[in-house]
Each structure stands twice: as C-alpha cells, then as structure tokens.
C-alpha cells in the first residue's frame, strides 16, 4: 500500500537510512551554528539545559536568535510571539510547498511531525526527493540533525568560545555549501532556475548594501525578497502542468512500467 | 513585569510549530492554480539563494574567504551534486584561505 509508512517495510527503512545519511552533513553544519547560538544564550543568562530544550522545540537559527534577544531585552510575550513569527515566516511558505509534495492521503500525525521538522536544510533535502515524500526520510534526517543542533547549542552555552576562531569561521560556511548543493544542480537542467538564482544573488546583495533597507532585519528581508521574486518568476515563467508535477510523471511512468511487467 | 523563561520558550515553541505545521496539515488537496503552483515551485530556490548570498561572505572572518567558498561551492555542486562534499569543500576553502590572510 502506498500510504503504509511503517518501518516494517524495507523501503521505509531504507528511506529512513537515507534520511539519516543526508542528515549527517546538515547536523555537522548545525552543530557549528548552534554553538554560536549557545554563546548568545549564555550571554543572556540561560542555562545549557534551557538552551537545549529551546533548540529541540524551535530548531531555527534566525528564530532562536530572535527568542534569545527578546528574552534578553525582557520583551512582552506578544512582542516575542510576533518576532518569532517574522523570523520563521519563510517556513510557512516552505510548508506550503512541502504539503504539495506529500501523498494526499498522508495521515495528520505524519503531516504534523513533518511540519515540525521543517528547517531550511531539511526542507531543501526533502523537497529534492523524487515523488511523494516518504515521512521516514524526513524522520531519519531529523533524528540526526536536531540532536546535533541541540547539542551544539548546549555545548556552546556551557563552554563559550572554546573552538578556535578559524575553525568556527570555516564551519560557518557548511550551511551555505549545503544550500548551494540544493539550488545549483537543478539550475544545470533548467535555465530559468539558473537565471533566477543569479537575480536573487544580485537583489539580495543590493538589499543588504543599500542603506534604505538597513532598518530591515535579515529575516524580513528574506521574506520580502522571496515573495516578490517568486511571484514575479511565477508570472513571467509559469510552470506548465507536466513540469510542476514531476512526481505525477514518475508515478505515471512507474504505473505504465508495472503494466508492461504484468503483461 | 516579571517574565518567566518557561513561558517565553513555550510561546516560541508554539509559534514555531504552528508556522511549520499549519500548511502541511491543512493543505491536503493538490493545488491546481498555475500561478500558485509556479510560485511554490520557485520559493525554495529563491529563499535559499537569498539566504546564501551575501550572507556567506559575512559568515567568515575574512569576506574574501566567503567569496572563494561561494565559488568553490557552486563549482562542486554543479559537477558533483553531493551535499556533504559541497559543504566540506566550502569549509576547507575557508580554512585554507584564512591561513594565508
């Protein structure tokens, strides 16, 4: 059955293992980033345990940074709620995109846990999976990367600046390397995506350099640019039915393959 | 007013979960609108691109190392397509360049 995602099935176990494997580089990058977050948390007087719990529950770089600065500033609860919403708003868009990548009959609990697992990186690797997303892939990746994120923040909070500065500097680009590995390969096959990436780099660069936009936080900048550029791309280069639904094509191809085998 | 850290974290966790899980749990039907579908198709590429540059050049101690990591990352991703290799090559690039700068 296509909606049976229990680990009793070999295919599900292998998806889980693939998720864990792809979760390792993400976890390593997380560890370094969370480490520096932990230092921020320590500065506002949080304990490593509190830091670890926050990291497991929120696991978001910009989002958690917002949490710590708001706690540090003694902000009102509602203020923090709004700030966390803005810092994490891109996940709302990613979640929409991911919802289209799941089997329509996928159960509520699977959808909830997959939603909980969304981060920039886990979204990136799971949207890149062919066909409908197998939840076990996401769970495997979460099982490796979220504990490493939490451990990184707790250890960072506990020990402060133990890692040499040059190591932290080198580790900090691991995340961006992963982003590139997600966006560049599709650009090879699709010129529009390639051009889009170039346009994004340019606009993002100007946005960060122009003083007019200096009052806008990084998270808000990401949201504005994402909505504007994606909408423009969707208007200028609408995707036709076949292209937008590669999963459907593969399903159909597989189905016809089975028919041939049956015959 | 005295704020409890526990409540702060509870709010943060709740807001984070709602943002992430609302669409995955509620959007069960496949979207048929071409604009919305195209929009959602482009979102991941745009978000990740916007978050990568120029942030990668600001993450390193020396911006030159960040630019080099960007270039190496694009080349490795183009030819190898591998997440781990690309990430490691970017890190090594920064490590090596910052030894000399």
Task: Summarize the topology.
The complex is a heterodimer of chains A (263) and B (101).
Chain A: H1 10-43, H2 48-58, H3 61-72, H4 77-99, H5 108-117, H6 120-127, H7 135-159, H8 165-171, H9 174-189, H10 191-209, H11 218-236, H12 241-244, H13 246-262
Chain B: H1 5-26, H2 34-52, H3 55-59, H4 63-80, H5 83-100
Structure description:
- The complex is a heterodimer of chains A (263) and B (101).
- By secondary structure, chain A is an all-alpha fold.
- In chain A, 78% of the residues lie in helices and 0% in strands.
- Chain A contains 13 helices and no strands.
- In chain A, helix 3 (61-72) runs antiparallel to helix 4 and helix 5 packs parallel to helix 7.
- The two termini of chain A are 21 Å apart.
- Chain B has five helices and no strands.
- Chain B has one domain.
- The radius of gyration of chain B is 20 Å and the shape is flat.
- With 101 residues, chain B is mainly alpha-helical.
- The model of chain B has no long low-confidence stretch (mean pLDDT 88).
- Chain B has helices spanning 5-26, 34-52, 55-59, 63-80, 83-100.
- Chains A and B meet through helix 1, helix 2, helix 3, helix 4 and helix 5 of A and helix 1, helix 2, helix 3, helix 4 and helix 5 of B.
What separation lies between the terminal Cα atoms of chain B? 49 Å
Mean pLDDT of chain B, as a whole number? 88
Summarize model confidence as the mean pLDDT of chain A. Answer: 82
- Amount of beta strand of chain B: under 5%
Helical fraction of chain B equals over 70%
- Using only CA atoms, what is the Rg of chain A? 20 Å
The chain-level structural class of chain B is mainly alpha
Q: What is the total domain count of chain A?
A: 2
Largest sheet of chain A: none
Q: Over the alpha carbons, how many angstroms does the gyration radius of chain B reach?
A: 20 Å
Report the count of strand segments of chain B. 0
Largest protein interface, residues of each chain: A-B, 102 and 78 residues
């Amino acid at each position: 059955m296509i909606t049976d995602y229990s680990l009793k099935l070999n295919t599900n176990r292998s998806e889980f293992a693939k998720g864990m494997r792809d979760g390792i580089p993400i976890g390593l990058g997380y560890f370094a980033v969370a480490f520096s977050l932990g230092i921020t948390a320590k500065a506002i007087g949080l304990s490593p345990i509190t830091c670890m719990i926050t990291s497991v529950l929120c696991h978001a770089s910009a989002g958690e940074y917002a949490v710590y600065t708001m706690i540090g500033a003694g902000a009102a609860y509602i203020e923090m709620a709004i700030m966390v919403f803005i810092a994490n708003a891109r996940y709302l868009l990613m979640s929409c995109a991911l919802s289209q990548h799941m089997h329509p009959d996928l159960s509520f609990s699977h959808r909830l846990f997959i939603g909980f697992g969304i981060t920039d990186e886990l979204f990136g690797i799971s949207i890149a999976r062919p066909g409908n997303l197998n939840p076990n892939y996401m769970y495997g990746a979460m099982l490796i990367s979220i504990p490493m994120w939490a451990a990184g923040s707790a250890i960072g909070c506990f020990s402060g600046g133990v890692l040499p500065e040059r190591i932290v500097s080198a580790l900090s680009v691991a995340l961006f390397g992963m982003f590139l590995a997600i966006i560049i390969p599709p650009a090879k096959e699709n010129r529009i995506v390639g051009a889009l990436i170039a346009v994004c780099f340019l606009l993002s660069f100007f946005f960060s350099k122009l003083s007019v936009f200096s009052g806008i936080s990084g998270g808000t900048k990401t949201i504005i640019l994402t909505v504007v550029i994606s909408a423009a791309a969707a208007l200028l280069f609408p995707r036709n039915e076949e292209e937008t639904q590669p999963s459907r094509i593969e399903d159909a191809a597989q189905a016809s393959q089975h028919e041939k085998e049956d015959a | 007013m005295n704020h409890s850290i526990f409540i702060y974290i509870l709010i943060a966790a709740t807001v984070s979960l709602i943002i992430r899980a609302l669409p995955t749990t509620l959007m069960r039907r496949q979207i048929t609108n071409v604009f919305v579908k195209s929009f959602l198709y482009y979102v991941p590429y745009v978000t990740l691109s916007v978050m990568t540059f120029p942030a990668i050049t600001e993450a390193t101690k020396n911006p030159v190392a960040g630019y080099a990591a960007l270039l190496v990352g694009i080349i490795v991703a183009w030819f190898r397509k591998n997440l781990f290799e690309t990430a490691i090559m970017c890190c090594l690039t920064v490590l090596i360049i910052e030894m000399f700068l």
